[in-house]
C-alpha cells in the first residue's frame, strides 16, 4: 500500500445478491415479482389497451381504451410503489396494506365486470390472480405490522392523548 492508495477495509460490506435476498424472505420476493408484473402489465395496458380488452372479451371503443389506459397508469403507480417499499430495508406496512386493498378491489371490479357481461369469463383468471395477491399482501402486512395497531393521532382509546 502506498501513500496514494486508500486503505481497504478488512471485509467489504456487500449487499446480498438477489438469490440470497429472495431466500431470506420468499414471500417478500414473490410479492416483489408480482409488483414487477403489475408495473409491466399496467404499462402494456396504456398503449395496447384495445388488444388487451379484446383478449378479455370486452368492447374496444375509444372510451373503453381511455379508461383501460387510465387503469393501467394506476397499476404502474401502485405496483411501482409496492416494489419500492419491498426493496427498502424496512417495508412500509401502510403501503403493503393499501396495495392489498387495491388488489382486493381489482378482484371485485373484474368479477363484477364478468357478472355484468362486460368481460368474458377468461378475465376471471386476472381477478383470481388479484385475489391471491391480496391474500398474500395481507399475510405479509400482518407479519411486518407492529403488534399494536397505530391508529394515528386519535390513539388506541379513541381520544387524542
Molecular structure report:
This protein has 161 residues and is an all-alpha fold. The chain is built from five helices and no strands. The protein has helices at residues 18-24, 26-55, 62-87, 93-115, 124-144. Helix 2 (26-55) packs antiparallel against helix 5. The longest helix has 30 residues, at 26-55. The protein starts with 17 loop residues before the first helix and ends in a 17-residue tail after the last helix. 24% of the residues are buried.
SSE topology sketch:
Blueprint: H1 18-24, H2 26-55, H3 62-87, H4 93-115, H5 124-144
Helical residue percent band = 55-70%
- Strand tally is 0
Low-confidence stretches: none
Strand content: under 5%
From the alpha-carbon coordinates, what is the Rg to the nearest angstrom?
Answer: 21 Å
Terminal CA distance reads: 60 Å
Order of helices and strands: HHHHH
Calculate the mean pLDDT score and round it. 87
What structural class results from the helix and strand content? mainly alpha
Which quaternary structure do these chains form?
A: single chain
Largest beta-sheet characterization? none
Number of helices: 5
Overall body shape: elongated
